[in-house]
Specification:
The protein is α+β, with helices and mostly antiparallel strands. It is built from 2 helices and 3 strands; from the N terminus they run αββαβ. The protein has a 3-stranded mixed beta sheet with strand order 1-2-3.
Length: 102
């Protein structure tokens, strides 16, 4: 049995990989955090992360959930039954300084 902490680390890394195609070089996203509950050959995952702005939040969220689910299943051999996503903040792609009103 793979420990929950290891599954959570795999999920966090997979979330980072999933966002690689959505982020601009200037976006300063914090590293995704993940939790996992493992039992009976299956895993439930929770992700907490930043997303780039502008983006289609619903579509990006679905893509991240799908990618993380598939990646964790492939690497661990576990069935992923749930991936919840908490969006902590939206990070403008061109940085905060360019968005301020003078």
């Amino acid at each position: 049995m793979i420990p929950e902490k290891v599954v959570a680390r795999i999920a966090a890394r997979a979330a980072k990989e999933a966002l690689a195609g959505h982020t601009d070089a200037h976006a300063e996203l914090t590293a995704p955090r993940a939790s996992a509950t493992v039992g009976g050959g299956s895993a439930r995952l929770g992700l907490s992360m930043d997303l780039p702005y502008p983006t289609d939040l619903a579509e990006t969220s679905r893509q991240v959930q799908q990618y993380v689910s598939e990646r964790v299943a492939d690497l661990t051999g576990m069935r992923v039954t749930e991936v919840t996503l908490a969006i902590e903040r939206l990070v403008p792609a061109d940085g905060l300084d360019h968005r301020r009103v003078q």
